[in-house]
Amino acid sequence: METFKDKTYKIGNAKITRVTETLLMALTPEKLFADWDETVLDEYSRWLVLGHRQEKRRNVILSVHTWVIELDGIIILVDTGIGNDKIRPFSQMFHQLHTPYLVRLEAAGVKPEQVNHILLTHLHTDHVGWNTRLMDGQWVPTFPNATYVFPDEERGFFMTPKGEARRMVFEDSVLPVIERARTVAIGPEGGGYLDVFTFHPTPGHSPGHMSISMRTGGEDVIFTGDVAHNPVQICRPEWVSVFCDEAERSCVSRKRLLDYAADHSALLFTSHFPETSVGIVKRKDSGFTWEYA
């Protein structure tokens, strides 16, 4: 049975709430990480699996959710999950879901028409799905009054031979907002948005992937996107998940982000970590540690 622990954080002048779409448990640790070492299971089990003492091959928990930011009277969403009714033959985890995501969003105090900005870390299927919803046989923007902001380089992937199998994601979840809503494309060098946000290039998981920092009231947070899929990668940043396109670039981006987070004492708001999905990175010896917040 799915359980959700969606709490609200007060950061400077902002309130940040996680709205969970679903929890995925389709991968064992060794399938998620090519470098998985079974001998570290006890050390990392609190982050990876449930019931590991009875069944050591239980699956990793991956949360799929949106971060809702209320800041100075405006509402911003970071990433929009998988979406309902989406045809995804490449993954049964994402295929034709029917979740009460919009009900949960409204329970958090947000109706679709109230959203002002959508910030997208990248354009993968589990980050853009609720950009649109199916109405009268057409995909229309779920958040009709919002400006959708995304890394421009991500669009090009769908036009490559490698991206052909995922082109339906662009056609049903990205193209309709380009055609019917306001959009802002962030260039490959990254940059600022709304004074308090900065898009940071963190390629590797996808070609144009970006993490997004926010500074308000003298405090820093980072919306990581898919720089890491599980807390074990904070302690083992050289471990690459099966979902990343370019292993070496993803490691470089992850280490750079961890350095930034430690140097700025920035709270990390992750895209797929279990439990609260939020935590702090600290330096330990020559590496890093993770602690949930």
Describe the protein's architecture and organization.
By secondary structure, this protein is α+β, with helices and mostly antiparallel strands. The chain has a single domain (8-292), classed as Metallo-beta-lactamase, Chain A (4-Layer Sandwich), CATH 3.60.15. Helix content is 22%, strand content 31%. The chain has helices at residues 29-32, 41-48, 101-107, 125-128, 153-157, 167-173, 175-180, 232-235, 247-264; strands at 8-11, 14-27, 60-71, 74-78, 117-119, 132-135, 138-141, 147-151, 182-186, 191-193, 197-201, 210-216, 219-223, 267-269, 278-284, 287-292. Strands 1-2-3-4-5-8-9 form a seven-stranded mixed β-sheet. A seven-stranded mixed β-sheet has the order 10-11-12-13-14-15-16. Strands 6-7 form a two-stranded antiparallel ribbon. Strand 12 and strand 13 form a beta hairpin. The protein is globular.
Amount of beta strand: 25-35%
Stretches with pLDDT under 50, minimum 5 residues: none
Going by CATH, the architecture would be 4-Layer Sandwich
- The CATH class is Alpha Beta
Please trace the helix and strand order, writing H or E for each element.
Answer: EEHHEEHEHEEEHHHEEEEEHHEEE
Q: Please indicate the count of domains.
A: 1
Distance from N terminus to C terminus (CA atoms, Å) equals: 24 Å
Helical residue percent band: 10-25%
Class of secondary structure makeup: alpha+beta
Named CATH topology: Metallo-beta-lactamase, Chain A
Q: What is the general shape?
A: globular
Number of DSSP helical runs: 9
The biggest beta sheet is recorded as:
7 strands, mixed
The assembly state of the depicted protein chains is single chain
- Rg over C-alpha atoms, rounded to the nearest angstrom: 18 Å
Q: In what order do the strands lie side by side in the largest sheet?
A: 1-2-3-4-5-8-9
Number of strands: 16
Mean of pLDDT? 93
Name the CATH homologous superfamily: Ribonuclease Z/Hydroxyacylglutathione hydrolase-like
